[in-house]
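Provenance

Sequences were taken from public entries as deposited. Structures were produced by running a predictor on each sequence independently, with no templates supplied. The record for Family 5 extracellular solute-binding protein from Haloterrigena salina JCM 13891 is shown for reference.
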Amino acid sequence: MVQRNTELSRRQLLASGAAVSAAAVAGCIGGGDGDGDAFHFTQEQSREDQFDPVVSNDVYSYQVINNVFDGLYEFGEDLELQPKLATGEPTVEREGTRYIFEIEEAAEFHNGDDVTASDVAYSFTAPVEEETENAAEYDMIESTEVIDDYQLQVDLGEEPYGPFELQTMGVTVVPESVRSEDPEAFNRDPVGSGPFTFETLEGDYVEIARWDDYWDDLDPNLDRVRFVAHDDPAGRVSDIRAENTDVIAGIPNDDWDVLENEQGVNLHSAESATYMYMAFNCNEGPTTSPEVRRAIAHSFSMQDFIESNAANVTSPMYSPIPPVVNEVWGFPEDEYQELLPGYDPDEAQSLLDEHAPDDFEPTIITPEGIRAQLAERIATRLDEIGYGADVQQLDFSTLVDTYTTGNADDYNMYLLGWSGGPDPDFYLYSLFHESQEELNQGHFYEGSDGFHEGLAQARNMADQEARYEIYEPIIREVVQQLPALPAFTQDNTMASRDYVQDLQAHPDSIYNPTFVSDYANVSIE
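Predicted structure for Family 5 extracellular solute-binding protein:
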């Protein structure tokens, strides 16, 4: 089996906050009504301000990118993959190792050049050839062949790649001639084929403008959109209440009721494809014992924690597969819920008394925010049964350097989050396959016979039903053996002024917001 290495991705591994503080939105609002002012969208965190899709790897830059560029395919409102620059589904040959795509002949870039098969081929191969952080999403491609201007053949090698259709086919397409001439300039002033053109990059904001000659049938209602980074939750809430912005992303749980009762404000929410979890060190120390892991899971109530700390902006999870992804695949989530340890402090104490050292006080490392609150809740409940925990809140870079060591002196448990798409491989291979130890995971879970082989085998199969049959017992094992305890999935939340029409939250953060699509076209009343 081919085992490909998936490097750490900022778009997948969810940090708790941005490194750079950004100023609040101020000034006139209400674009799209002809008065020349931009529509203001206040982002949840700071961007890296990399707008070249070949290079960019953070959610908040991609929120801009997805309005300036079109993908070969794109995710709809229910995470269904839809053709965009492609005319339809690809022709699949050679037992799932060859894909032939047909490109829309009407599609154009903002500079007037046609979107061609060569541009799509370049977009597939450039991340690997340039060794960017996105290389792992495309390194299964062995070769591309331009059949003609509007037909492209992509070969994957000797074996299929299971996640190809739901992960890789959605490539964001860039113009080869423009980008290859000066990649650095392209990164700061990109040319796409999407409904908006890139206009302005200033210190704290990016502005895009409606492309009146957009090749697709969709015509954006908004004239201009200004993206302003603002990583202070209280500041974002103040801005929307004071009408200093049109929309904010990322509503704090404690402010949900405030905004829900605020006159002139509407709330928007969608379950996201995220997996928040507490992982156990299965490499060293007492948490190598599944009985100790079960004891800790019994010691507190995840449901009570969610209800008291995050009920407005999260949803419970019962497996490593987010509910919105589970809807696509149909795994028996109700059965997994029954398998998870329920709140039972007596059972927790009994298991720890039998299987843990007398002085057991696990070290929990965590980023700030809600995951730190969860760590403190666990420590409190363990203390109530005579044990306790040492909670260490680390900055994100330190946390990443620490949790991958597998050293029990560094941690016994850690809390993190993962964001992906609608394919189980995003969550299962990256977070549980042995090749990802010291990269994307620090639990070092040995697994049962065939556990790791199954993950690799499913990755190299094209048939979804066959992959399901491999994944289901693997998910069941994770739920029962608890190398990682599912916590919750975060919701993508927004608040808008009530004059904003047709705004919808999308389950994928990088598509949130989508200003123009076949299911929504945002406008000002």
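The CA atoms of residues 32 and 222 lie 4 Å apart.
The radius of gyration is 23 Å.
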